[in-house]
Amino acid sequence: MPLTLFKIGFIPVTVMDILDIFIIAYILLRLYYYLRGSRAAQMLVGLMIILILSVLAPFLQLRGISWILQNLRTVWLVAFVILFQPELRRILISVGQSRVISYFIKVSGNKMIDEVISATLQLRERGYGALIVMGRETGLRNVLETGVRIQAEVSAPLIVSVFNPRSPLHDGAIVIQNDLIVAAKCILPLVEDTGTFTSFGTRHRAALGLSEESDAIIIVISEETGRISLAEAGEFRFNLSEETLRRDLQQAFGQAVERKE
């Protein structure tokens, strides 16, 4: 039997009960931070109010409300899935891409990385400059608030169209999180001291600045030279080939590196 720590009245409280409470509290806290500031958070508050009302109604002898809520119980789960479908999808993707899961399960391929690499090569061929932020564990809320929300699945044609010089969104960076282009036209923090790289342009300074403040991976395509660079942890890797870029991204996101014989 589980070890009893203490009793509340006649109810025993065990170690597993304490662990259960902490796990539920952690899940609710993470869910709050994930949904905070979004429209889904407002819907979640509405559902919580209905849930509380369904508990209080029998005690307050609100028979009409109790009857309505009891008859709606069969559709709560379906309604929850329908209302929160996009958020549930992103949460499941986030869990699947966590470092703990990636440690045990190695993914050999990833559509998001393929689309980003395809877009990067197309942007270089067309002579478009670009700044692509690929978020990992660190939150990027401050960066996202400076841009225009998109919330679209990552695709090479969309990325290329965003950085078309005729596009109103081409200035700034796009931010990718959990296989979604979350926002475009985002402003990144500029690094003040570029060290020996005195010829850095705005894009490179912005990429280096964000890489020092977060664990994000930032791809820079130079409009002048067409060279592809990658910023990570306050350091740059310059003039990357397609193979090198793919290898670096797969390693950064905890995936098995594809080896060509």
Q: Mind telling me the C-alpha Rg?
A: 24 Å
Helix tally equals 10
What is the fold named in CATH at topology level of the largest domain? YojJ-like (1
Overall geometric form: elongated
**Number of beta-strand segments:** 9
Description:
This protein has 261 residues and is of the alpha+beta class. It has 2 domains: 4-102, no CATH class; 109-252, DNA integrity scanning protein, DisA, N-terminal domain (YojJ-like (1, 3-Layer(aba) Sandwich), CATH 3.40.1700.10. The chain has 10 helices and 9 strands. The strands form 2 sheets. A 7-stranded mixed β-sheet has the order 4-6-5-3-7-8-9, with helices on both faces. It has a two-stranded antiparallel sheet with strand order 1-2. Helix 2 (39-59) runs antiparallel to helix 3, helix 6 (111-126) packs across helix 8 and helix 6 (111-126) packs antiparallel against helix 10 (242-252). The longest helix has 21 residues, at 15-35. The protein is elongated, with a radius of gyration of 24 Å. Residues 256-261 have low confidence and may be disordered.
